[in-house]
Give the backbone structure.
Amino acid sequence: MFMQFVTGFQIYSSAIQRPLWATSRCRIRTRCNFSNSSYPHQVLQYIDEECGDFLPWLRQKSGAEISSVLSIGKSIYGRSLFACKPIQAGDCILKVPYSVQLAPDNLHPSINSLLGEDVGNVAKLALVILLHQRFGEASEWAPYISCLPRVEDMHSTVLWSDEELKMIKISSLYHETLKHKGQIEKDFSSIKHVLDSFPEYFDGVTLHEFKHAYNLVESRGWVSTRGVSMIPFADFFNHDANSETDVLSDDFKQVSEVIADENYAPGDEVLIRYGKFSNARLLLDFGFIIPRNKYDQVKVEVNAPPNDHLHALKLDLLHRHTTPSLKDVNDLSSQENGFMVMEVKSSSGKGRGIPQSLRALARVLCCTSPQELQDLAMEATQNDGRLARIPLKNRDREVEAHQLLHSRFSHMIENYKAALESLTHHSSEKHRRRMQLARDFLTGELRILESASSWLKNYCQTLKQRESV
Ligand SMILES: C[S@@+](CC[C@H](N)C(=O)[O-])C[C@H]1O[C@@H](n2cnc3c(N)ncnc32)[C@H](O)[C@@H]1O
């Protein structure tokens, strides 16, 4: 649930030897809107006033220079980091010692000792944040805590009301969100007795406040050797799916570092990649989506019809062949009863984006006799053990299998269109923003479904044409 965080000295060493070609890639850059005067003046104009004392405080607390090339500003993504001096690819642009990172071990032992084993690191770190929020100006972390966003400005779906969540009911993200909300509520119940034991610190903490702290951790924390860590300053980086820049951790030197993956001019917003995340994942954990996100994927469910007289045989066959090798090479794996579908770039290409395992399932579901099923089992044994991975010899049946998928996709497309049409104007600013997020999110998933549907339609037509020749 966090941005990916590469740990270990070895990975760190290889990261700074990044090949030079990485610097010439084309990527999205956000520039601040400066006037025409020279850049040092412009950069100074752009410094985020609210964070004026933040970097000097962090420098003093750590006893080390954090960054001499980045300054804190604001972009359309909220608080952001900008180059204030020229940066070359390969430069180390930021170093944050572990000693000034917040982690679950910052929780006082008297509180920690009361927590059960079932309480995870995110909940523990959320408690650390709650504690320092309560201390206010008296907290030694106040300059950092005061820079964290207010709950009203965060839009992760775990913070959406039941009414708002209905807008995305059509997507698997709806159920993912409910599951995640359930986990947060469970964690809150598990720590409630600790909150009650320390009324001087936690008096009146509500589930809503806990959720806020929990989502602060999920949207800004990195998995680390300390479990999960909040890395002040590094968590002002915004996300760009095309960036190759990660936050790296060197356990030997006890420091987190960022190495630039390309050149930046003063005034450029410096962006990193949190991970290769779909929009569902971005919206659940971070509260935003990326239009035309190249890592986007939609969960599609296809079930065996229970009234099929071969139902039991088919399930048995599928069960016997559901081994780890069913995973597709491109990691488009089958997930429980769902399949993750990505955009199919060309309707006349190979159909990359539709998992092979989904097409295999459709081939099995279309069999009408035990003999056909046996033939598939035999073919799998003679090949690599995977079931129905090659087109069926019976071309009609191959068309039928893909028509079955096509009708499933068409049905989903109709439902997505209806869901999009039902999103009507709303008056409150927060709700309007979330409605726009829902609209953009569903539009992205619809685009994927339509691309897969066009490919399936084209595949069936091509097979039929070959048959009639
Ligand atoms: C790690 S914080 C980055 C700093 C943040 N902008 C701030 O104001 O403190 C992650 C949050 O930044 C915002 N964000 C980051 N990248 C974004 C992007 N590409 N588009 C929109 N919002 C983004 C989202 O609100 C996300 O939850």
